[in-house]
Write a structure and sequence with these properties.
1 helix; four-stranded antiparallel sheet; alpha+beta
């Protein structure tokens, strides 16, 4: 199963936390990442490929 990472960003755009996820595809990874946002900015990555950005 592919490995994805969600990088949660602080108010200055720096990484404040990382969530590792195993998902079947990009769409499932997007759904999983949304669970961790809590009104925060974030980026979703699969290896060196940016999948999505989330802005509060």
């Amino acid at each position: 199963m592919p490995h994805y990472r969600t990088y949660l960003l602080d108010e200055n755009g720096h990484i404040s936390n990382v969530v590792d996820m195993e998902c079947t595809d990009d769409e499932q990874a997007r759904e999983c990442a949304r669970k961790y946002l809590s009104g925060r900015n974030a980026e979703l990555w699969h290896e060196d490929r940016l999948i999505a950005t989330y802005a509060n």
